[in-house]
Predict the structure.
Amino acid sequence: GVVLFAERNVYAQLPTDLAAEIRTMTGGYVLFAFLSTMLREIVKDIEDMHGDEESNCRTLPIVFGVRAAKIWAGIFAAILLVLMSALLYSLWQNAGYMAFSFALIAVISPLLVCIGLLNKATKKHHYSQLSKLTKAIMVSGLLLLILIWKS
């Protein structure tokens, strides 16, 4: 995102189609990175809540409670799910079947599992599982970007 902003004059000289595609891909990826990172950080804050309390940290679950933190994590996950669904639709429309399949299996499905587990989570090991799952979603998103770029 920073490179896109810093090099905006260079992008302005590119053909309109290419510049728009680069902006869309970069913007989409930056948004994915932000939302998935926020989701993971909230889950990690819930997981590490007791240690953070001992260190007098003021994290979301400590200040507003676990329920509020889970709601915010769910909001970030839901927004991510909606945006990924829009991407799936676009991939299907543009015959990006390999990227579509990968996104469905490696990003959307784990994200749905994550939302389900988030609702049921009550213990530290639940949040540890969620943290690992959100990491996998983030890695899958990175790989998806490569697949889309190569197709």
In short: The mean pLDDT is 92. The two ends are 22 Å apart (CA to CA). The CA atoms of residues 40 and 132 lie 9 Å apart. The chain is about 85% helix and 0% strand.
